[in-house]
Amino acid sequence: MIMKNKKAVCPPGLRVKRSSAGLGLFTTRPYKKGERIIEYFGREISKAEEYSSKSKYLFEVNSRKTIDGTQRDNFARYINHSCKPNCEPNIVRGKIFIDALKNIKEGEELSYDYGEEYVDEHIKPYGCRCTSCPTK
Fold first, then answer.
1. Is residue 85 domain-resident?
2. Looking at the domain assignment, is residue 42 inside a domain?
3. How many whole angstroms separate alpha carbon 81 and alpha carbon 74?
């Protein structure tokens, strides 16, 4: 993350803009399969906070650690769910990284599968809005 006049600026190679699901994170350069794109970060919260939180940006690292990625300088929070994702989260030494699942062209929206629990709770009731959804 780059700070400019106390305002967070998107990391090089990425840009936040409108997508089919609201705001999304798009590439401004190509990425190769397996390339690390961005880290998903935020405040570590307790299990009690996890269960009472209304945040949609919770990411479980393991059974003892959950990250609340609500803060706006966490640009990875803008990566939307997709039924056919081009990225995947990888947890390395307690940190969450988003890596390319395949070659990604400049201008593509980044996406990963949020997982069955999140999809059932937050996406299915309203309908999936990813561009590759098989139910469309």
1. yes
2. yes
3. 16
Q: 88 near 81, Cβ under 8 Å?
A: no
Neighbours of 66 (CB within 10 A): 22
Task: Write down the residue that tokens 């967070």 correspond to.
Answer: 8
Report CA dihedral (125, 104, 108, 7) to the nearest 10 degrees: 90
Domain tally for the chain?
1
Q: What is the dihedral of CA 24, 22, 87, 56, to 10 degrees?
A: 110
58-62 vs 36-40, strand pairing mode: unpaired
Share of the chain above pLDDT 70, in %: 83
Structural contact between residues 21 and 130, judged by C-beta atoms closer than 8 angstroms: yes
pTM of the entire predicted model: 0.85
pLDDT digits (tens, 9 = 90+) for 11-66: 999 999 998 778 999 999 999 999 999 999 999 998 888 888 888 899 999 888 99
Q: Determine the structural domain holding residue 78 and report its residue range.
A: 2-116
Residue 128, domain member (yes or no): no
d(CA 60, CA 127): 23
Name residue, tokens 């593509």: 108
Residue 76 gets which letter from DSSP?
G
